[in-house]
Structure formats: structure tokens, C-alpha cells
Design a protein that fits this description.
Elements (H helix, E strand, L loop, with lengths): L1 E5 L4 H6 L1 H10 L4 E7 H4 L10 E5 L5 H12 L6 E4 L4 H9 L4 E5 L10 E3 L10 H17 L17 H13 L8 E5 L12 H15 L2 E5 L5 H10 L5 E2 L6 H10 L2 E5 L2 H8 L3 E5 L4
Helix pairs in contact: 2-6, 4-5, 7-10, 8-9
Length: 290
């Protein structure tokens, strides 16, 4: 059996869908499972044991081209079942046009007619953690396709594998940046995606940076995407003890490995804050008005 999982659109959501993907692997243990995801998330899952293949795509400026390119490609792959984590119309249209015979997703965005098994959004959607939203979709898949009901009894497992080779490369990158491997390393995620309101003020991060140096004698490393560059420059400007700055210099996969070998991540509400507990690193997240 060939299964296509359409991945989520954001890094944090990708992490929160891991328990659901693990359950898909468990209940369809002999299937070939392909993750169809944005290129930005591809590196996260390069060592994942719960999928067999990754098909990545870049988001096109024109959505109609995304639909055409992806459905043309996927239609030739012979998938038997498509499981759709996103709620968008476009994510359901692609497997429909690809003629995948079984298509399962939430009945949102007027797309129910594109699905063979539309699933009602659970009434508890806004009261439970997002991992259960994705797990519920897998539970419905198990009930409707296999006639069993075991998924929701599982304890959600968000763990994400990082290979030893990637860990060695991450340590090498830190050392090359000047980080002392004999001291504790604290990462600061000083940016955020989509909302400036999610950002703890740069002057506070600068004070924190100095205190981590003075009181714990720690390496302090700034991490984030190129979009966080302005915040990184401001923190570096204000800090007395200058942090190491890796903002905008790593891929998501490289950042995940660096987080794995660090001792602590302190971050705003951002994708890295979801990656950190998934790779087993202690994590503090600062939540603001959003």
C-alpha cells in the first residue's frame, strides 16, 4: 500500500503532527509512506523512522501552479491513500486531481466534495493540544479503513531523530563559530514568525545574555532565520558580553541538530521552540500577548 501524507505548512505544526505520523506508521506497518511537505520542513524529517520518503515542494507565487505541478507529479506515483493535515482547499484539490482513490481530511474550507472520507472538525478543537487534532484524523482513518480503534489510546510521542553524523556536524559548526565546547551552551531564539508582538524585547534578551555569561559562564548563541536578523543585531548591539550569532546562517535541519547538542533553548513563540523539546533539549518559551 502506498500512502501520501500532506504535511502541515509551518514548522511548529510539523512538529505537532509527528505523533500522528508515528501512529500512521504503526497502524500501516507494511505501507510505503511518503511525506509531501514544503521544502522548508524537509530537513526536519531526514532521519525520521516513521516515513519512507519525502517529496518536497516550494510554495509558488501562483497557487494554481502549485496545484498543477504537484497533481501532475503525484498522479503518476500510484498512491492508494492520501491523508491531509492542512485544512486548505488546495491541499485537498491536489490528491483529487491526482486521482488518489482514498482521500481523508477535515471537512473545512468547502472542500468536502473533494474528499472520499471527510471528517468533521471535533467540537473540542480549541480546548485540546494541537497534537490531538492531527491524531484524531489518524484515528478516523483507522476506523474507516481498518475497522479498528486504537490510535487515541496511544501516548503522543513528538520525539524527532537526529543522526550522530548530524550531531557531529552541529558541534563542528558551533566550534567553528568560536563556541567553547567545554562550557554549557545556551541558545536564544530572539525572533518570531508573522507577529512582532510575539517578540520579547531585544533589550531584555541582551540583559539575559549578559547574566548567562556572568552567572553561569555559558556560551550564548543567537539562532533563528534570516527574518530575525534585525532582532539579532539589536540584541548584539545592546549586550555587554557579545553573543555568538548564527541567525540566518543555518537551514532548519542544521538548526535542529544545533539545538540537539545544546544544553538549553530560551525562545519566543517560534518554530525552534517546538523543535527543541522534540529533539530532547530543555526549553523555556516566553509567551506574550498572542
Amino acid at each position: 500500500m502506498k500512502i501520501l501524507i500532506r504535511g502541515t505548512n509551518w514548522i511548529g505544526d510539523s512538529i505537532m503532527s509527528i505523533p500522528a505520523m508515528r501512529e500512521m506508521r504503526r497502524i500501516f506497518s507494511d505501507a510505503h509512506i511518503t511525506l509531501h511537505t514544503r521544502a522548508s520542513a524537509e530537513g526536519l524529517f531526514s532521519n525520521a523512522s516513521f516515513i519512507d520518503e519525502i517529496v518536497a515542494f516550494e510554495k509558488n507565487r501562483w497557487p494554481v501552479m502549485d496545484v498543477y505541478d504537484n497533481s501532475s507529479f503525484l498522479g503518476n506515483e500510484g498512491f492508494d491513500l492520501a491523508l491531509l493535515f492542512p485544512n486548505s482547499f488546495e491541499s485537498a484539490l491536489i490528491p483529487f486531481l491526482s486521482r488518489i482513490p482514498v482521500r481523508i481530511g477535515y471537512n473545512k474550507d468547502l472542500r468536502g466534495f473533494l474528499l472520499t472520507h471527510p471528517v468533521a472538525v471535533p467540537e473540542w478543537k480549541n480546548r485540546r493540544h494541537e497534537v490531538f487534532y492531527y491524531l484524531n484524523l489518524v484515528a478516523e482513518t483507522e476506523r474507516r479503513i481498518l475497522g479498528r480503534d486504537s490510535v487515541l489510546a496511544a501516548l503522543p510521542n513528538i520525539s524527532l531523530e537526529i543522526s550522530e553524523d548530524r550531531e557531529r556536524q552541529a558541534r563542528g559548526s558551533l566550534t567553528a563559530a568560536g563556541v567553547d565546547p567545554g562550557r554549557k551552551t545556551v541558545l536564544l531564539g530572539i525572533g518570531s514568525t508573522n507577529s512582532q508582538a510575539k517578540r520579547w524585547p531585544a533589550e531584555r534578551f541582551a540583559i539575559l545574555c549578559d547574566r548567562l555569561h556572568e552567572e553561569l559562564d555559558s556560551n550564548v548563541v543567537l539562532v533563528g532565520s534570516e527574518g530575525d536578523r534585525d532582532a539579532a543585531e539589536r540584541v548584539t548591539e545592546l549586550a555587554v558580553r557579545k553573543p555568538f550569532d548564527l541567525v540566518g546562517t543555518t537551514t532548519v535541519a542544521e538548526a535542529a541538530a544545533i539545538i540537539r547538542v545544546a544544553d538549553l533553548l530560551i525562545a519566543n513563540d517560534m518554530g525552534l521552540a517546538h523543535i527543541s523539546p522534540a529533539v530532547g533539549t530543555k526549553t523555556i518559551v516566553i509567551f506574550g500577548p498572542t
